[in-house]
Each structure stands twice: as C-alpha cells, then as structure tokens.
Amino acid sequence: LDSNGDLNGTPSNTWTPIGGQNGKDYSGEFDGDGHTISGLYFNDESVNNIGLFGKAVGNAHIHDLGISDSYFCGKDHVGAICGDFASGVIEYCYSTGTIYALNGDSGGLTGSCFTNAHIRQCHTSCAVTAGAGNYGGITGYLWGDINHCCVMEGKNAEGHVFYGGKTDDAVFADNALSTVPTRPCSVAFGA
Length: 191
Known about the structure:
The chain has strands at residues 29-38, 41-43, 53-56, 61-79, 82-107, 110-120, 123-124, 127-130, 135-136, 139-142, 145-147, 150-151, 162-163, 166-168. It has 191 residues and is an all-beta fold. It starts with 28 loop residues before the first strand and ends in a 23-residue tail after the last strand. Strands 1, 2, 3, 4, 5, 6, 7, 8, 9, 10, 11, 12, 13 and 14 form a 14-stranded parallel sheet that branches. Helices cover 0% and strands 50% of the residues.
C-alpha cells in the first residue's frame, strides 16, 4: 500500500482474489465501512473467478465498499466486486476500472449473479468487454436479483447479458440479449 492506502497493482504486483480458487469460496460478511480500494490488478486469461472476491456463496454479505481504478482480466466470471456471485447480498457498492473476460460472464460489479444472489443500491462506471459470451455493465450473467442499480452514463456498458433473473429499477431490458442502457445515477453508502 502507498501512503494513500492504494494498492497500485501492476504486472509485478498482482492481486489474488479472496475465494474462488481450490474450492475455498467466500461466505462471510465484508463491511467496507465506506472505504474505497484502488489499484487492484489481475491479468491471467487462464483463470476463472476474478475480482476483489473470486467467488461468494452462502450468506455472503459484501457492503459499503468501492473498488476504483482497477484492472481485472480473466477467463470466465470476472467482475470488480465478485467474479462468480453464487449467493448472498452485495449492496451499497460501486466500481470503476476495466473488466475483461476471455470467454464471457464479465460485468462492472459481478461476472455472474446466480439465483440466490442479490445486488442492491450499487453503481459502476467500468469499461466491460469479453472475447466471447456474456458481458454487461453490472453483470454478464443474471439469474438473481438486481435492485436500484445503475451504470454511469457515458461508459462502455453495452453487451450481451444472459437474463433470467429479476430487476427492479435496474438497467436491463427484458430480453435475453440486450443492449444495457445507461443513465445518470448515484448511490450513497449505508443502510
């Protein structure tokens, strides 16, 4: 960390995601307490489940956290907050930076959001792309719930989102492969 608390990730200083590798998934509570982590860096197109958290399961609760000026590149399930969000709650979070998945399932907050996963009151301004497959401003694969979230206007948020979940005042259209709209938005920390 530098004097400002930034990680300043570089090719010689690579971030290791919390959980998601070797069957060790994250299932606890992470309270960011309104802090921002910046400078995370990961670049390996052979690895799945990339983000601050690689994979979150069970009753995972990640909240009141920002990820800024970070770079995540992996094979599948790539997102700034969590790569593979299997179950739990992510709320009052935001992200900025660059997200890329070689095979897809990439998004500004999560790469994937499954049936028992809920994203609430979050926003992102990440530039998100994929070599193939699903990608979108918030998540690339949605089977869970997204409520009151948005993609910041003017950012690269267009993509093909696999959509089978539920949204409430979020930024998805109703069809499976859609262009994700953007709009001005802000989300404050705290419940």
